[in-house]
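[job 0417] fold request received: HAD family hydrolase
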Amino acid sequence: MTIRIAMWSGPRNISTAMMRSWENREDCSVVDEPFYAYYLQQTQSPHPMFEEVLSSQSRFYNEVANEMSEGKCDTPVQYQKHMTQHMLNECDLAWAKNLRHCVLIRDPAYVVNSYTNSRGDCTADDIGIRRQVELYDYFSQFSERPIPVIDSASILASPETALPHLCDSLDIPFSDKMLSWRKGKRESDGVWASHWYHSVEASTGFAKPKEASFTLNKSQQKVVDEVMPYYEYLKTKIS
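[job 0417] inference complete; emitting structure tokens
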């Protein structure tokens, strides 16, 4: 029986590097943002490669949900990379009650700065931090174990410590193969990889965090201020 892991992240985090890390295990396969087309179909948000994404995967929520919860999988572990903003408020989350969940967070100031550099303005809903809290609270009602919350900064600073701790929290043996991977593209990458994954494709592991210096404008700071309480709440759940 496959152990299915749902990692809930917002955009402009290290979610794709985490996917690389898990896919490098011999016992694990990965799924890249399976609800992306559904999200775009419902919101009509003008994302890069809009039509390509819609053509690349199912747009039907229930169909994707069934695949993620009960679909055929040939590996002992399946790692599902999810974006929290893809889970719209009307989504029925019952399909994921029996998955093992984890939450990946990042300081909102860095998220907003990176997101707006890539796509222009953003809203609180675009970066999904508030939705992360809602998902965390919902799934915590059903989880047999505390849902691990991990800050991307801790992974970048010390993956050899943070990743074994994450695996232990998920009751899955750690593999040191998670610490590095080969350069290049993957068949498992979403079609949007050609737009977003250049840095990850050039990587062979988690890069040490760099000192970043930037100044947010009023619009950016407003979004940060709006979501910061949710980020701080999730930080209190880090163990």
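[job 0417] notes: The radius of gyration is 17 Å. Residues 218-235 form the longest helix (18 residues).
[job 0417] exit 0
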